Every structure is written in C-alpha cells, then in structure tokens.
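Here is the promised in-class demo. Please do not try to memorize the tokens; focus on the logic of going from shape to residues.
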C-alpha cells in the first residue's frame, strides 16, 4: 500500500519516527515516514513535546466523519529548529518554536488577508489529516520531526517551559481568541463550561484579562483545582435545580464541553445580551428558539485562531506567566492517555515527551 505521507518532493527528507492511528479502534502504533526535505521557506523542527487534544481523539475515532489512515495526530507542537531553507528570515537553527493546528492556507482570500487563516475560504491545510497541496495528506506532531513553512511557525518565548507551552498552540489559542473577540476585561462575568484541557486555559487567560471567572463543572471534584487555577467561583451542575440557581449570571460562556449536553440548559445561565461561544465539538445538538429569544441571547462558535493572534497569545502568556498544567507521558503511553482522557482523568493536559522517540 502506498504510504499517504509520500510525495515526489519528500524523497530526500528526514525519516520521522512517529505514532499513528491505523483505524478508528486499534491502539496507535509506531510508524516511520519521510518528511519533505526543507524547501526555500521551510523550517525543519526537531519536536520536543506534543500535547494530546481531545480533537485528536475525535479525529482518530471518526467522530467527525470518515478519515484517511494511517494518521499521525498532534497539533500542539513545540520543538527546536534543526535546519532552515535558504529563504527563511524569521528563524535560525536552535530557536524554540511551535506549530499549532494550521500548516498552510490560500493566503489570498479575505480571511487570510485579515490574518484569520483558520477561516480560509478555500479551506486551510490542517496539521494532520488534511490534503497537502504538495501531495499526500498532512501528518502531525506525535513524531520526531516536522517540516513547516516559516509563515506557519510560531516563536515560543524561552521563558515558557517547552512542555507546558505545547498546549498553548491549540488549547491556549482556542480560548484566547473568543475571550478577546467578545471583549473580556474587568467587569465581564465569564463562565468556563468544562474544566479540561481547553477549560483550564480559559480560566487562566480570562483571569489574566481581568474578568470575573466562574467554572461550570459536572461535579465538585475539581473545585479546589479551579480556585488554584484562578477561578473566583465554581458551580457544579448536575440537576435542573443547579441550573435554576445559576440562571442569568453570565455575560459570556466559553463552552469547552466535548460530549453531548443540553445547550438550552447552559444558555439559561446567560444574562440579557449574553453570548455562549461553542469551542467544544460534540455531535449535533438541538437548540430551542426560546432559549435565545427570551434574553436576546446569542449562540456563537469559534475555531482556534490565526497565526498573528496565536503569536500574540504566546507573548501574552509569557508576560503573565501562564502555561498549561501538564502530565508528561512517553510515546508508548499514548493509548493509555487516550483511555484516561475519555474518562475525564487528566490534570489538565497530557503532553507527549518526544525527545527520545
Ligand atoms: P477535555 O480535556 O477532555 O475536556 C472536556 C471537558 O468537558 C471535561 O474536562 C469535562 O469537564 C467536560 N465534559 C465531558 N463530558 C461532559 C458531559 N457529558 N457534560 C458536561 N461536561 C462534560 O477536552 P479538550 O481537549 O479541552 O477539548 C474540548 C472540546 O473542544 C473537544 O470537543 C475538542 O474537540 C474541542 N476543540 C475545539 C477547538 C476549536 O477550535 N473550536 C480546538 C480544540 C479543541 P468537567 O469535568 O469540568 O465537567
Ligand atoms: Zn486541539
Ligand atoms: Zn484563504
């Protein structure tokens, strides 16, 4: 069978050692493939750490539709520059860098021109599982190396620990972008629904932006952690009564919940003119018109962030001393980390140490 990572331009590239999924149910297994040899504006990165996002799990399991296998997941990548093409201007060998969810886009549509490549009208090229304009499909960061054009490479401040910085490349930007877009600041009543990888970053970032932050969780188990992470309040929501008691409290809800739940119930927690932003991506879920109409409420969504904003977020996190709370795992522990993530048993992001893969 042809290796989908192969293309004519990749023949002399570095041999990457990786972990890949081969179907929706089998454990991820070691996989070797060739990265393209760096072209003029490419940066070759030796990967140090890669976070495990719940999106990796959705993707591998086919929750969002059929995928192409084998696929190497991973889009929270931090590493050091190993070599650069002759035209690279921003980076040099040894720099600490990051790669998030995007490795290419059309660069000419209105959204790319506005530095919002995540909404590229021709469809951006995602770090894994996307059709690569150079051939084959893209392969992500559970690997020893990656080659990415410099425009899609981020500078990671040396002040941040590389392992704890990795989740900023997805969990960080996915929560920073809507918090900023909806003008979070002093006086904003922000609720973070779901205290997982994205949720714990949302708490830290919203707090640093000056908001009053409440965590909405499914039990009281994470209450102490929520306070330590910077939340002012914590509400466990397990009954209709719990929702009724928290009604009409919030200007903005960042909803990071990964599993099916009632949007109507969470919308009832918004004040008049409040907005609930979906960043979590569970399956289809109905919404009652009455949940929105009653308080002129809005239901919105947000997808990661563009390159310019991702760099801004990394610098913001460095200035405020913010990074993820991570549990580092070895590559051979990826499958048990997936099982634990499904059981909500993670504090608060698994990060794979790829230095020795
Ligand atoms: P995660 O670490 O597994 O966190 C998800 C959280 O959801 C859990 O910690 C849990 O919080 C809550 N939860 C789980 N099941 C629930 C249920 N049945 N009802 C209510 N709450 C429940 O996942 P993650 O990596 O943060 O990702 C979260 C979601 O965001 C995923 O769907 C992922 O695909 C998506 N995502 C979207 C983007 C984007 O650009 N929009 C980017 C990255 C990820 P508690 O324990 O506090 O209840
Ligand atoms: Zn992600
Ligand atoms: Zn575009």
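The designed amino acids, position by position:
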């Amino acid at each position: 069978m042809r290796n989908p990572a192969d293309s004519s331009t990749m023949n002399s590239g570095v041999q990457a050692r990786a972990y890949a999924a081969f179907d929706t149910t089998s454990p991820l297994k070691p996989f070797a493939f060739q990265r393209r040899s760096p072209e003029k504006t490419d940066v070759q990165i030796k990967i140090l750490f890669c976070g495990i996002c719940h999106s990796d799990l959705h993707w591998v399991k086919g929750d969002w539709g059929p995928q192409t296998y084998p696929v190497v997941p991973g889009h929270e990548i931090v590493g050091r520059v190993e070599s650069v093409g002759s035209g690279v201007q921003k980076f040099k060998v040894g720099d600490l860098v990051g790669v998030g969810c995007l490795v290419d886009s059309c660069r000419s549509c209105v959204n790319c021109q506005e530095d919002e490549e995540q909404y590229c009208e021709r469809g951006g090229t995602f770090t894994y599982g996307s059709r690569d304009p150079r051939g084959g499909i893209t392969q992500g960061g559970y690997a020893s190396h990656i080659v990415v054009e410099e425009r899609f490479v981020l500078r990671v401040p040396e002040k941040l620990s590389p392992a704890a910085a990795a989740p900023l490349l997805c969990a960080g930007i996915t929560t920073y972008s809507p918090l900023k877009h909806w003008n979070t600041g002093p006086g904003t009543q922000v609720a973070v629904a779901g205290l997982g990888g994205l949720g714990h970053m949302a708490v830290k970032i919203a707090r640093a932006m000056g908001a009053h932050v409440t965590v909405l969780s499914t039990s009281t188990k994470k209450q102490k952690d929520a306070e330590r992470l910077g939340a002012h309040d914590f509400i466990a929501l397990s009954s209709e009564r719990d929702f009724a008691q928290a009604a009409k409290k919030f200007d903005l809800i960042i909803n990071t919940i990964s599993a099916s739940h009632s949007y109507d119930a969470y919308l009832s927690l918004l004040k008049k003119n409040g907005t609930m932003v979906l960043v979590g991506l569970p399956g289809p879920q109905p919404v009652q018109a009455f949940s929105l109409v009653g308080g002129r409420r809005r239901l919105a969504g947000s997808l990661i962030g563009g390159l310019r904003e991702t760099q801004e977020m990394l610098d913001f996190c460095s200035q405020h001393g913010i990074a993820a709370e991570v549990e580092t795992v070895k590559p051979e522990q990826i499958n048990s980390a997936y099982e634990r993530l499904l059981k909500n048993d993670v504090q608060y992001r698994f990060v794979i140490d790829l230095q020795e893969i």
